Amino acid sequence: MELALIILIIVLIISLAIMSVYILALKLLNNSSVISVKIKKIKSVIYPIIIILTILIIWKSILPENYYSLKRLLGSNEKLFNKTLDKGSFNNEVDALVTYGSLNHDINVLYNAKLDENGNITELKEVLIKLKTESLVKIYDIKKSVKPYEGQGFIEIQIQNTNGSFVNGSRYWIEADYLNILTPSDLNKDKHLDTNIGIQKKNSSTTNSTQSFYQTSSEVSKICGPGIYTINLKPGEVSKIWYSIAACHRYTFERGKTCKFYLIYEDGTTFSSQSSGQWPDKYKFKIVNLATEKPKLVII
User: pTM higher than 0.85, yes or no?
Assistant: First the structure.
């Protein structure tokens, strides 16, 4: 309200100044008829301003509480309007930054991709991960185009860690036609979507083949001290327990020519026996065997 008063006063002062200068100029030109017409036009603007200012000043003096209550109401409406705009901006920003995918049928395998210098897929390696229909994954980069490979389109996704977060989640490739694209706003509308990607819950009374290989860290763990452990797993089988390396010890695996497996760590990341370099500094994992030769865990 004070701002409105200030604006009206400024407009009044400017109008009076313009009128004074204009009248002075016309007097110097000895043009009284024109002066009379111009004064009437300026009065038609100045008089309403003076009346409004007078009413506001009298209102503020006689009914101050009413004046400030209305001022507060107008201010709160302005804040509410601004908040509505900010909420709309927030939702739009979130939708623009994050894109999810909902699986349109059960998945038994994902892929690690080898890309050439142009970003095209040259090779896909299977990773045995099972996800249920309507499980939620995150599109890693929606700006990247779908990559063709052997007559199908593939897109890179990110799956949740065991704590349910996508932050630093494992990245894989999946057939693009297996996904229905969603925004965060779509998730709020579709409450039936499985946002936990099929992670098995503790004390769950049901188990089936569509459950993820990722399990909660509250399951049975085997603490392994120094020695060599032959992991008795069939091809495609996942260890039912977590292997935990004893404190102050390191681990490695004997890498035979026909031995092929990968580890699933507690944080949801994976490491293949075919990968180069040292085993990650993570000491609790499950083992997924991919060949007839059984993995051999060596604790040092």
Answer: no
